[in-house]
Specification:
heterodimer, A: 393 residues, alpha/beta, 14 helices, B: 265 residues, TIM Barrel, 9-stranded parallel β-sheet, 12 helices, 9 strands, 14% strand, globular
Amino acid sequence: MSFDGRFGEFGGAFVPELLQPALDALDAAFREASRSETFTRELEGLLATWAGRPTPLTKLRRLDVGGARIYLKREDLLHGGAHKTNQVVAQALLAMKMGKTRLIAETGAGQHGVATAMVGAMFGLSVRIYMGAVDVARQRPNVDRMRLFGAEVVAVDSGTARLRDAVNEALRDWAESYPDTHYVLGTAAGPHPYPSLVRAFQRVIGREAKAQFLEAEGALPDVVVACVGGGSNAIGLFADFIEEPGVELVGAEAGGRGSKVGDHAASITRGTLGVLHGTRTLLLQDEEGQVAATHSISAGLDYPAVGPEHAHLAATGRARYVAVDDQAALDAFRKLARFEGILPALESSHAVAAALAIAAERQGARLLVGLSGRGDKDLATVMAADASTEGSR
Amino acid sequence: MNRFDSMFSRLEGERRGAFVPFVVLGHPDLEASGRALDLLARSGADAIEVGLPFSDPIADGPTIQRATTRALAKGATPSRCFEVVARFRSSHPDVPLGLLTYANLVVRPGVDAFYAAAGRAGIDAVLVADVPHREARPFAEAAKSAGVAPVLLAPADAPAAALEAIATLGEAFTYVLARRGVTGVRSELHLDHARTFDALAKLGAPPPLMGFGISEPSHVRAALTAGARGVIVGSKCVAILDREADEETRLAELGRYVASMKAET
């Protein structure tokens, strides 16, 4: 756990001076909440009675995994349909303790936006969500859901009109609105204290999964696999296993449609050191430091940087990161639907694909996979991909 | 002596404030950007602040974002922008030049290499918009070794400890924010900066220039009355250069605007 915001050479708080007091206030509220039993009880109560924790651990039954035993941690069954709800409830509680009445958030796939809108509706807080125009088009059901929860959804046209541009716009809003507004950053990236805070509130995923896995298998998993965009579900799943040297940690990044710049979003496997959105981390960029365009079939992984702790886990070798391409993610999506009756989010499908590849190489391995969200939102994308595959045959 | 220091002593003698226009390097294209700098210097600018285009300018509002996007589309890489600056410097040896940029453009080539390149091009001072005082030390030290002045942003509501660090680390001038938010033109300007200016003066900070939201002659007077030693005006200048008009018309308008604003100092 980092309390100074550094993860080796990564992390920090690179924001305009104007926002420093807002980050300091958040840091103070977070530290106080971490020590407060009342806060913990309130949060756990809401997660149990409103969000549906604990989520189950499901063993794959029919999918041919070559003798491996694969378990899914079912964050797709959490209220809202993804792991995002865990830490949004916590941030909203912190916001109210700081006296803030308005929430803003960025969203890629729309899951974080949905979680923020939903929590805002429950607490009676006003909510504005920034979402890239490209993502508004490809994740339509989530846009409708956010609006039904009463949130204002702003389609961001600037830059590449994707997640990264939505973050830019949210930061611009916050530079003006911080006196009454809390920025509910959606992943374990951004300036300190967000990476530590989001990790702390997503840690429940790994804590539950570890106990459930021990119960089911009588042993720890050999490999823990999660998808990584900014990296919040992955760090939440990994956190309780980092100190278990026998457990291999694997992060699945978006390999997109190829290894050329602009065709993927694999910031750890193909990125270099830089500073974006408040943190020093690995980044997809050109020789002179302009941030590169990205592509992924999954909007939630379509981001040119990654949380600083993942950059650090990669640098120290504690975790390994692999790029999973669009096609492999689509195949995993279809297999899980066809053989297990589960529709994973395209983001989570990257983790499933990575796990299936590992299982194929290791006879009898025990795997824990983060199924971070459900795939209903992705049906249009998957159907369109199916249609274009049919057409080319 | 830094060119900004000479400028402030000259203006003190004249009992006037500084008018510092801001433009984006490479906007609307690299060649035209060089001509805009010449025009600013000839129209009465006391110093010029230039922006180095970055793909993700989080401190900028729509006007400067749009200009940045146009500049990048026309190939405004940092090295080409520094060539524009170097050409300007060779014909204007005395005009102070400040550079505004973002951390990634400094970190990518290496902090030392970046400041060395800026210094060679003729830049006097560099402000990195997303480097607050807590992260500023390595940037400020590299700047000073390269003979470039580090400039820090001072928000009006900055806590005392932040102002102290800003005063200690900064050189040439202190960039005082007129208001919250990002860059952009505002018709109304409410200044409540007496505490900030007093604190900066007591701490021996470099002279304060005020920016963000300043666009009209009345804002210049308000800022100088409040205690600023000059003003930085960005979005209005950039908007003029962004207009759909031939270059001659745009530059003539920019020249008239600069002269009208300078007249208020």
